């Protein structure tokens, strides 16, 4: 049952972080392995980044293979097969964001990573392994798990009880709030690097302030308030939200299967118990008949 549940979840979210040429990154026996490929391309934001081997240059950014290797060092246990592609793609696409020259980590990026973990990794069947895997993913990207956790808590506590209007107004008037100042800094940064992980953090806050169903107009209002106008926002939201819905459908299917299996098991046990009771009754009846046959009659007793 645990394997079925994990398979459903992994299948539901595999599209969230997808490499265009997934053959460039393969999973070894329980570990993540990067296989060199003459044309390994990965789609990231509005750019196409080539992973072709190049001549080393001064201050070159570390290749994806370094992040994969670091993950394997931080988490040396075998990865359940159905999760390998998901973890691999998450590391690859996020690595291609964090190594960009103008990338700056902020609390919303941390919240986005934490939201991904809570949405898709908590169903990992091995007890306690999901958190260790997530920490290894963060470590492979040079992100501190403690900082990500603290930033997640800070953003959600800041947003708690606020209205959408109050959050958006705080961008232009932070009034000493570290979270609002981050949003203001994003707005002021002409070279801000948009990423899906950052957007997921914003989606989480939008839900926190009461936007349970987020429309295209809602996305336009929030991201334009931070001076972000990329056309990827809507597609990233649809992809993430669709994956959440597929995961919920998969979980519901699992619950229904589990209920049916439990009912079948109960029926089998009931049938087995009934058969055992009938067999015991027949055996008891047979013993009683034998006792009756062996018992002397009154006439036989008198003659004796």
TrEMBL record:
UniProt name for this protein: Uncharacterized protein
Signal peptide: 1-24
Keyword Iron-sulfur included in the entry's annotation: no
Superkingdom of the organism of origin: Eukaryota
Organism: Rhizochromulina marina
Coiled-coil regions, chain positions: none
One GO term (biological process): photosystem II assembly
Record-linked Pfam families: ThylakoidFormat
Sequence segments annotated as region (Disordered): 280-304
Keywords for this protein: Coiled coil, Signal
